[in-house]
Structures are given as structure tokens and as C-alpha cells.
Specification:
The chain is of the alpha/beta class. The protein is built from eight helices and seven strands, in the order αααβαββαβαβββαα.
């Protein structure tokens, strides 16, 4: 990993590698397997039944949770749109399917490529995976068992990526729930000088525009051990943004390729940070 990372930071491979990766993602995304399609065929499947067995490779772990009754949309009163999916499934499965190929193309991690591993935070299996991903935390209200499981996961070295949520009240809910998980924890606002934005790709600006809801300005937060920004970050938070939306549609030409590249760079950096801290 280190030699490739060094070349990337020197500016030798990022744009070329990501452009190739986007082409690769487009090729794979157009294969006919139902699990890699959106719409009724994908929504009708039970994603937990698709979990591949543990094999010591990197797996994309998506956190499943029972949403609260707040929200709106087309799936029983929860969230926004979602093609019949609950909030925690937003952008599933195309986002991670594409992202994993970018990760494979640009690093030496060689992840498991066939989609997500779907787990709840109270599942002891979660402790096998160093990085986890959760979305729409404005609707997140974990049980006491899930709170305890996530606390154990983070304190034992796990890293949580939080994406795809917006508005002050959603941030308030997330902050409240995280204080249940890590009493006394604080969200610390991040700038581009933070280490996580220079772990593989050098991300000089955090001005990536949100793909939807342009009225919001993206803000990035971290939760650190002992609330000390010089120590290990346990949680990275993309507020007022939806990085995975760029991943999901990167093969369809809905968004400019430079914005999709920037979203992929963030994701790669997050994974590298989680694996090395």
C-alpha cells in the first residue's frame, strides 16, 4: 500500500487512476445481476442474506437500523425517495459497488468486490471489520444494545463513516445519539488540514458541492478519542452532503466527472485512515 500511496500523493496516479476507475465502474455497473441494479428487483431482496463470509479482506460494511417515525418520502414515511428502501439503504447497492472498484483500482487493498456487508451495531460480527458506513442518521435511534455495540466497536479501534444527512435537526439527532454511544463526546469541525484529508489523496479543499439540496453548505466533523483532535479520529461525519450519491451515479453522467472524482477521493482517504489508525 505504501509505495502506491506515495505515488498518489506525489500526483502521479490520482486523476488517471480515478478516471480509469470510473470507466471500470461503468462497465461493471451495467452487468445484469439484479443485486447490482436499483429499482424493484434490488429492493425486493433481503440484503442481509447477501453478506459474504468473512475472509480477512476489506468488506464494505453498511449499518442497518430501524428508523424513527420522522421524515417523509416514498417508503412508508421514512427518509427521502429511496426507491422503496428504508433510510439506511440510500444509494445501495450501486454506491458501494462502484466505490469498491475505485478502491481496488487505486490502492493495493484488493477489497471484496461483491457489494455490502449489512450489519447492525449490536452484531458481534461487526468487530471483524475495521471500517463501517452509516447514512441518514437524522432517522437513527439505536437501541441500548446497539448503543453498547457501537461503543465497543469504536473503542476497540473501529472507524465509522457518516454520510447522507442534512439540516440542523438531523445533526441534533445524530449528536444526541452519539452522546449515548460515547458520553461526553463532541463533534469537532474539520478543515482541509486534518490528517484524514491527506492519507492517500491530498484533498486541498472541502468545497465539494452537495449533489442534491444545494441550499445546504457541506460541513465535516470528527469525533476523536478524548475529544482531542491530535488523537485518533473514531468517526468522520459528512453533514449537509451525500458523497455516496456521487458514487452511485458516477457511471450515468448526471454529475461532472471532477466532482465524482473528488467524492471518490474522500471515500478512499476515509478507508485508508480507518485501516491505518
Amino acid at each position: 500500500m505504501i509505495p502506491r500511496a506515495a505515488r498518489a500523493l506525489a500526483g502521479m496516479v490520482p486523476i488517471v487512476g480515478l478516471a480509469a476507475g470510473l470507466t471500470l465502474a461503468a462497465r461493471y455497473a451495467r452487468r445484469g445481476a439484479a443485486v447490482h441494479e436499483t429499482g424493484p428487483a434490488a429492493a425486493a431482496q433481503e440484503p442481509e442474506g447477501l453478506n459474504p463470509p468473512y475472509d480477512a479482506r476489506f468488506h464494505f460494511v453498511r449499518i442497518r437500523f430501524t428508523p424513527t417515525g420522522r421524515g417523509f418520502g416514498r417508503f412508508g414515511g421514512f427518509g427521502r425517495g429511496g426507491r422503496g428502501m428504508p433510510p439506511w439503504m440510500h444509494d445501495y447497492p450501486r454506491a458501494e459497488y462502484h466505490f469498491l472498484r475505485i478502491l481496488d483500482e487505486t490502492t493495493l487493498i484488493h477489497p471484496h468486490l461483491d457489494g455490502s456487508h449489512i450489519l447492525t451495531t449490536d452484531d458481534p460480527e461487526l468487530l471483524k471489520y475495521p471500517v463501517a458506513y452509516i447514512v441518514e442518521v437524522g432517522f437513527w435511534n439505536p437501541t441500548e444494545e446497539e448503543v453498547h455495540g457501537l461503543r465497543s466497536y469504536l473503542l476497540k479501534g473501529g472507524f465509522l463513516i457518516v454520510d447522507d444527512f442534512r439540516s440542523p435537526w438531523e445533526l441534533d439527532n445524530f449528536e444526541f445519539q452519539m452522546r449515548r454511544v460515547l458520553p461526553g463526546s463532541r463533534l469537532i469541525r474539520l478543515d482541509a488540514g486534518q490528517e484524514i484529508f491527506d492519507t492517500f489523496f491530498r484533498i486541498a479543499s472541502l468545497d465539494l458541492a452537495p449533489p442534491t439540496y444545494p441550499q445546504f453548505t457541506p460541513v465535516y466533523y470528527g469525533i476523536f478519542e478524548d475529544n482531542d483532535a491530535t488523537k485518533r479520529m473514531m468517526v468522520i461525519v459528512n453533514h449537509n452532503n451525500d458523497v455516496a450519491e456521487y458514487w452511485e451515479w458516477s457511471d450515468r453522467g448526471y454529475y461532472p466527472i471532477d466532482l465524482s472524482n473528488d467524492a471518490y477521493k474522500l471515500g478512499v482517504n476515509y478507508v485508508i485512515y480507518g485501516l491505518t489508525h
